[in-house]
Design brief:
The protein is built from five helices and seven strands; from the N terminus they run ββββαααβαβαβ. The protein is α+β, with helices and mostly antiparallel strands. It is globular, with a radius of gyration of 15 Å. Bound molecules: magnesium ion. The site of magnesium ion has 6 residues, from β1 and α1.
């Protein structure tokens, strides 16, 4: 039976930080504030994967109070979550994420974000979908205060349960 997990993440956008999304440094005058590189795409997908396997969440594994994860590359954290999901007896079927932000426009970067994510998860490119939406000027993603991402992941137990 297929199992599904859901993930969400949001970070403030501030000056003096790089904007890293799906492992791509996106040129922009502000970046996401966080303990790690604050990659909302990686974090939402990681939580979706962990959720599908009922393995807790990203914050359990990589607490933002732990100096080891300061400035961490979130694609490495994502790989570590995929390893944990597989070690728990699941194959990863697919992931699908939506980034919500008004600016910058992300279309030119989506393919690279998918490629990086697929590599980090050891999945085929056609098993990784990433989309970008604006919130039409509404709320913290619309007025530029922040960026958010939602993701779902499906996994299949290797042996019947
Ligand atoms: Mg995060």
């Amino acid at each position: 039976m297929i199992r599904v997990g859901h993930g969400f993440d949001a970070h403030r956008l501030v000056e003096g930080r790089a904007l890293v999304l799906g492992g791509v440094v996106v040129p922009f005058e502000r970046g996401a504030l966080g303990h790690s590189d604050a990659d909302v795409v990686a974090h939402a997908i990681a939580d979706a994967l962990l959720g599908a396997a009922a393995l807790g969440d990203l914050g359990d594994r990589f607490p933002d109070t732990d100096p080891r994860w300061e400035g961490a590359n979130s694609m490495d954290l994502l790989t570590s979550c995929a390893v944990a999901v597989r070690a728990a007896g699941f194959d990863i079927a697919n992931v699908d994420a939506t980034v919500v932000v008004e600016r910058p426009k992300l279309a030119p970067f989506i393919t690279r974000m998918r490629e990086n994510t697929a590599r980090s998860l050891a999945l085929a490119l056609d098993c990784v979908s990433i989309k970008a939406k604006s919130s039409e000027g509404m709320g913290y993603t619309g007025d530029g205060r922040g960026i958010a991402a939602y993701a779902v992941a499906s996994v299949v137990p290797r042996a019947p349960r």
